[in-house]
Every structure is written in C-alpha cells, then in structure tokens.
Amino acid sequence: HHVMHGADVVVIGGGMCGLVASFALQNAGIRNIRIFDRAPSGLEGPWVTYARMETLRSPKQLTGPAYGMASLTFRAWFTAQFGEGAWEALDKIPRPMWMDYLRWYRQVLELPVENDVDVRRIVPEGDLLRLDLAGTGRREDIVLTRRVVMATGRDGTGRPNIPNFVQHLPKTLWAHSSEAIDFAGLKGKRVVVIGVGASAVDNAAEALEAGAAEVRHLARRREMPTINKLMGIGSTGFTAAFPDLGDDWRWRIMHYSFQTQTPAPGAA
Fold this sequence. Notes:
Layout: E1 6-12, H1 16-27, E2 33-37, H2 74-82, H3 84-89, H4 95-108, E3 113-115, E4 118-125, E5 128-134, E6 142-150, H5 164-167, E7 190-194, H6 198-209, E8 214-218, H7 236-241, H8 247-260
Parallel strand pairs: 1-2, 1-6, 2-3, 7-8
Antiparallel strand pairs: 4-5, 5-6
C-alpha cells in the first residue's frame, strides 16, 4: 500500500558504503529510496574530518565502490584528469583526493543524499518502520519505510572508549581521535597518545608536524600489533560467505580481529 512520505528503503549514511548501497538498490530497480546523513554535504565519512593519514592504506588498484563498472573506478576518474602516466607514478591514493572522488561518484550517479539529517530513533509501526528525524536538513519529522540499510560506518558500532581517569578532566585538555582537534594549539606542548593503533600513530604524527615538543605513546599491550588480521575481508569468498555464517562464528572472527588490533602501516 502507498504511504504518505514513505520509502521502500531508507539508507542511513551517505558515505562510501551508503553511496554504493544506494546505487546497488537503484540497479535492482528499487528507486523509491532516501539517503540520510547527519554531516554537511561533502563531509560525509572520515576522509576530510577526523582521518589524518596522508594516503589510503589500500592499494590503488582495488575496485572500490565502482560496482563492477570500469568507468566508475577511482582509476577512471583519476586518469581522465591526470593521464595514464600520473596513474603509473601514483603510489597510494591521497586521502583528500579519495573524498573528491566520492563527491564525483555521488554527483555523476545523482544519488539523492539528504544532508544535515539525523535519524534519532527507529521503531516498528505496523508492517513498516518509523524513523524519527532531526537536523536542519530534514524535510519532515517522521518517515515511514519498508526497510532500513545501516551504513553508519565505524561510528555505528558504538561510541569512543574513553578511560575513566580521562572523562572527568576538563575537555580542553583531551580529545578523542574521532573528534576535531586543534593541532596548532599543541605547538610547543607535551602530548600523550593513549593507544598504538593506526589512528594513534596518525594523530601522533599530526601533533609532531604541528610543532608539539614531545609525543609519548601509552599502551597496555606488551607489543605493538604488526599484522593486520582484517586484510582478508576484501576477498570475494569472505564477502560472499560472511553473512551466512552463524552469529557465534561472526562474533569470534570480529572479536579476535578487534582484540589483535589493526597495526599502524609502515608508511605511517
């Protein structure tokens, strides 16, 4: 039945995964969709907000969100502007350039991302789901939909783990790596980074480059992680089979991966 202000699918998140999920839905003939992202247009995801590595970790040859279409790959976008010679000379993809590519991807596919819209709650309403919306970009307060796709990125798995002894300090004295940080304000100061994962090393490097007098890493583990146990998730076998695994095995795989932690790449 037709529902006023309704959608067949709502995609929550307009970052990389939200965009390709929306494109996949459209390719399947499902066009009555809406895409919500709480960030301003062009700032979806971590790429130009709290990601601070100079380049992507992944090899430049990966297909990415192209959905099997050569003309949608990063390589096609890059070589159309800079040529094959520049592509051959490129080592890793510069992080801000990746965001430029995603903005182009959204534009060329005319994906209807609605920015500055925050989904506050999802509750059943009959055979549908009701989404309660907030934010300056919302067109209405409530949207009904048949299905919801959660493309909320790593932020969607929970919240930052802040040690108890830090939580009660003045907020001017600490920040989490997922927040906006005034690195210029760290010039000449002594900085402690709690953790030795990839984001910890990225933020330590950013602080040193901004002129911090000293940066120290504190970690509970005896040794720094050296092997990225999640590298295999990019294989077709893992991608195709993971959803069919039982909850216990999916939990075991992800729990082990998070416990061993993602190491900082050598280039960092």
